[in-house]
Amino acid sequence: MFVGIDVGTSLVKAAAFDRSGRTLAVEARPVGLDLSGGTVEQDADEVYAAVTAVLEALTARVPEPVELAGLTGQGDGLWLVDAAGRPVRSAISWMDGRAHDLVDRWLADGTVEAVFRRTGGALFPGSPGPLLAWLDRHEPASLDRAAAAVCCKDLVFQRLTGAGRAVTDVSDASMPFLDPRTRSYDDGVLELLGLSHRRGLLPEIGDPVAAGGAAGEGLPAGTPLTNGPYDLAACALGAGVTAPGDGLLIVGTCLASLVVTTGLDLGGEPAGLYISTDRPGHRLRAMPAMVGTAALDWVLATTGARHQELEALLAEAPPGSAGVRVLPYFAPSGERAPFVEPGLRAELHGVSLETRPADLVRATCEGIGYAARHCLAAAGLTGTLAVCGGGTRSPAWTQLLADVLGRPLRVVEGEVGARGAVLAAAGRYGVPLDAGAWTRPTRLVDPDPYRAAYYAQGYAEHLELLAGARERARPRTGPVSGVTGC
Asked: Cα 378 vs. chain centroid, distance in angstroms?
């Protein structure tokens, strides 16, 4: 059998597949997030323990030899480890907002733009560059204790294989230090961020992805294992999105829009990033918005509704949600795609005492759809569009997304990231698998032409509301009228 490991933000999963791509079994374990005052951290040891637990449970359920295993996981954030891959402090999540003020200053002084013109990646508070710079200013002892600053899957790979050094891959290295043309670190970016003296913390880049044998914890000793790509790129592989112009929308905690490209445009407004892949010259133009299903989770919890009621709530409210509009930017670190706005927060419009929970829920789903349309347009979508993630489990929301986006959707269900991790591992080890069979869509969803036309106008109105919200989110400079200092 083939095993895919997907170390997500709130859930760690391992899936077993047969040679045809049929799912044999899936094991999952939740992991915690510590949210406090704009910071978001995770216990790295808890995450690793969840990985070994799901692997042990999976191999016990399916007692077949493991031919190979592929590893993927959440990207960005900062996971500081010692030489053995053990954490030296709590991991900082990609959702973290502590570097908000630092990114604001870099936006104002041109640093964000200068980095983007070199790498095609727009800095945001939860990316490794700002987090390293923040720790260097406020918590240097943590950096002094660390041997490497890695991403989530890199820690797991080092521990599972017992590797003597930290290693990442070109996908995780893409933000923010990788030169996409040379596929190596750009020392000029480190200088721009004031981090040249921390150069030694950057892990080696495995290109192609690093491979190693499992040390016997979680997987049988000697099992061939690969490290990467990270979850966004792995999902593109698992959904069969490999042709230039084709795209993928991941409706998960992160609302990620990806489009395959062979080009590299370092102009325009700094936003998103280019994710390098194992195929030199092929990249993913990525617009990973900060909040996807997390926005809906918050609204459901606030209104007292349950996830099981989503279908009925979407059916209860009409398109347009009785005039209610939701700008779904709920992340404490603001937004990173298709623009960088650390101070942006969610806004509700058109709410009154007559507003029902169904109106708020549908307006949130519509707002997430508009955000996805904005990201896909910025990423340059010209071909087909696949969609995956937890949001696709709702037929009503998937249909709403097709209507808001105004295009057919290839729905790919199941453990898409784990599938992609296995396909990447098979490519690395030269194991022939039928990628078409492994990535066949579950169903096709066409937009309703009348609702699509209605939502095209709604999208234009969304962009107008967003422009005002972005202006309100920016830091104010100068004295406030009527206020004097001491």
From this structure: 17
